[in-house]
Design brief:
The chain is built from nine helices and nine strands. With 303 residues, the protein is α/β, with parallel strands linked by helices. The chain has a domain of 211 residues: Metal-dependent hydrolases (TIM Barrel), CATH 3.20.20.140. A nine-stranded mixed beta sheet has the order 7-6-5-4-3-2-1-8-9. Strand 5, helix 5 and strand 6 form a beta-alpha-beta unit. Helix 2 crosses helix 3. It is globular. The two termini are 27 Å apart.
């Protein structure tokens, strides 16, 4: 019995086979496809210990071509992945989009194609404006997952939708326990005509490419906005036990902090409830609150 290739890799292989057939038959070439995931965490989130190199090599192996790294409340983690891709000479195989999962006062909002960290504690409306001011796109993650208190609340979500400030909605998140909650997200996206995406919400190497999006190749935020209506998303759900990996990561990072080692456990980097954020809004993380990219142990192939 042979192991089955990951879905993104299967799709990429099928695309190459189709193109070879087109060449033999003289048919016009098909538009190039990107295989993208727009919601990924690495060790710069306190609930992940996934190193940059482990993530990069696994993503490429599983057929992804574009990834938005969206750590909690910082873009520095995405920058670390982008720089590691360049260091490894793999920029022709993997495009890294700078992103952030922002803990707003109204729940989590994701920004992609960012240039700098957006502080947590702003309202969802202010956060969406800040993302767009940077030329980025606004994505709503797992909006109806009742097991994550950090998801955006209904009233602020409707406010963003009514104001046309949402560019895409996760209609499938691999970590959502019950499919009906993904369905609820798909219903609201359809109601407002917002493109839907699938997201692995990876925190560990096991989850990479469990969900992905096949759409025309894009380079900029505007390119992606134009490509999203043509998106074909593919999703598979993680086991409920995958949430144990995030609990393990939190405890592992706490132990590393207790031992005086570099860690991403500073509170500013962790997901926060709207109530706690409202009580103590915090700006962007300081360099001392981020992992040291030169720490060989922190950058090892863990996770």
């Amino acid at each position: 019995m042979t192991a089955q290739a990951p879905p993104a890799a299967q799709s990429a292989t099928a695309a190459r086979a189709m193109e070879q057939t087109r060449e033999r038959t003289g048919a016009p070439p098909a538009p190039a496809k990107a295989f993208a995931d727009f919601h990924i965490h690495t060790r710069f989130s306190r609930d992940s210990i996934l190193s940059e190199e482990k993530f990069i090599r696994t993503a490429i192996e599983r057929g992804l071509t574009h990834v938005a790294v969206t750590n909690h409340n910082n873009v520095e983690g995405a920058i670390a992945v982008r720089d590691k891709v360049a260091e490894l000479g793999l920029t022709d195989q993997l495009t890294v989009i700078l992103g952030e999962e922002v803990s707003t006062a109204d729940g989590e909002v994701v920004g992609v194609f960012l240039q700098r960290t957006i502080p947590r504690g702003l309202s969802a409306d202010e956060t969406a404006d800040a993302i767009h001011e940077q030329g980025g796109l606004v994505s709503i993650p797992h909006p109806y997952d009742p097991f994550r208190q950090s998801h955006i609340r209904e009233e602020p979500l409707i406010g963003l939708l009514e104001a046309s400030k949402v560019d895409m909605i996760e209609v499938f998140n691999s970590r959502v326990t019950f499919q009906r909650h993904n369905h609820d997200a798909a219903v609201i996206a359809a109601r407002y005509g917002i493109p839907g995406i699938a997201a692995s919400d990876s925190h560990s190497s096991f989850e990479i490419a469990m969900s992905f999006n096949a759409l025309p190749v894009f380079e900029t935020a505007d390119d992606l906005r134009q490509a999203l209506p043509l998106n074909e998303w593919h999703g598979s759900r993680s086991t409920v036990f995958i949430h144990l990996t995030t609990r393990w990561a939190v405890w592992s990072n706490l132990v590393r902090k207790w031992r005086g080692q570099e860690t991403a456990t500073a509170p500013v980097l962790g997901p926060e409830t709207p109530e706690s954020v409202g009580e103590a809004p915090v700006g962007r993380p300081t360099p001392a609150e981020l992992p040291n990219p030169d720490d060989s142990e922190a950058s090892s192939d863990r996770g």
